[in-house]
Amino acid sequence: MTKNLLQGLPARELLAAKRVLVVGDVMLDRYWHGAVERISPEAPVPVVRVEREEERLGGAANVALGVKMLGARTTLLTVVGRDQPAVKLRELLHAQGVETVLRDDPKLQTIVKLRVIGRAQQLLRIDFENEPDHELLGEMTDAFEQQLASHDLVLFSDYGKGGLAHIPQMIALARAAGKPVLVDPKGSDFQRYAGATVITPNRAELALVSGQWRSEADLTAKVDALRAEIGVEAVLLTRSEEGMSLFAADGISHEPAQAREVFDVTGAGDTVIATLAVMMAAGLSMEEAMRWANRAGGIVVGKFGTATVSYEELQA
């Protein structure tokens, strides 16, 4: 079934009373912008003369910011290193009013994604990362349980960087506390998300787990089998130019892609799940929350780099 009409956006006052707990892998997104005027004499590569540097919240930190920009309150629970990127992440989160419960791992290199930009085009990305200490992640589970009572919904942002090693236990704790659980998944093992309310894979992520589909009927069969296998209530499949499809026990809903030029898809999944979480926390059905998430996704892909969508933009 396909519907295009949106109910009114929940009032700011309602959203301001809702709290979303965001847990996952955080990173600092760095951008070096510069002019490209020649090819290096040392190798056949462009020479970028850096003119401007920029730092933004990435990963689960961008998801938490997305929740905040839509008007809800949020707490970010994660692990960072004891290094300069972690200091910058703290500064950016504090400046945006995102509440945090951060655990410091002295052995961890806070994840940094450095993108070199020339003439508004990404020329190169360099990643700096390693995995956090598992004992420290175990302590995070205790902190997670302490935060549950004061939040309306839990959102896991899994970037496959090791920060959600204990996600099965945390999902079980959240569901035992009666909290809806949303997961942006990664990797080939979706069994670790068993019991979640909604998971939001994209086409490539779903194909990695369920295999490629030959038709819409085949896709539906594969998603239904996945839902039954891992015990999730719904799967929201993001399909790029094909829009979004929500597979739930009561049927399938589809939203066509928003008609706008795509500039950059970086962080689009963050915006989709942040919007879905806020709308569901506000009491909207999954189907209606998906429509707002689809609209938000259509807005954010028109922006450069890791970005968010504000309440005002969504309202407009």
Q: Could you write a compact summary of the structure shown?
A:
This protein is α/β, with parallel strands linked by helices and 316 residues long. The protein is 34% helix and 29% strand.
What would you note in describing this structure?
It is built from ten helices and 13 strands. The strands form two sheets. The protein has a nine-stranded mixed beta sheet, with helices on both faces. It has a four-stranded mixed beta sheet with strand order 3-2-6-7. It has one domain: 3-Layer(aba) Sandwich (UDP-N-acetylmuramoyl-L-alanine:D-glutamate ligase), CATH 3.40.1190.20. Helix content is 34%, strand content 29%. The chain is an alpha/beta fold and 316 residues long. Helix 4 packs parallel to helix 5.
Short descriptors:
alpha/beta, nine-stranded mixed beta sheet, four-stranded mixed beta sheet, globular, disordered N terminus, UDP-N-acetylmuramoyl-L-alanine:D-glutamate ligase, 316 residues
Total number of strands: 13
What is the number of helices? 10
What's the Cα radius of gyration? 19 Å
Query: CATH top level?
Result: Alpha Beta
CATH architecture annotation name: 3-Layer(aba) Sandwich
**N-to-C span:** 26 Å
SSE blueprint and pairings:
Layout: H1 12-16, E1 19-24, E2 26-39, E3 46-59, H2 60-69, E4 73-81, H3 84-95, E5 99-105, E6 112-118, E7 121-128, H4 134-148, E8 153-157, H5 167-176, E9 181-184, E10 198-199, H6 203-210, H7 216-230, E11 234-238, E12 244-248, E13 251-255, H8 268-281, H9 286-300, H10 311-315
Parallel strand pairs: 1-4, 1-8, 2-6, 4-5, 8-9, 9-10, 10-11
Antiparallel strand pairs: 2-3, 6-7, 11-12, 12-13
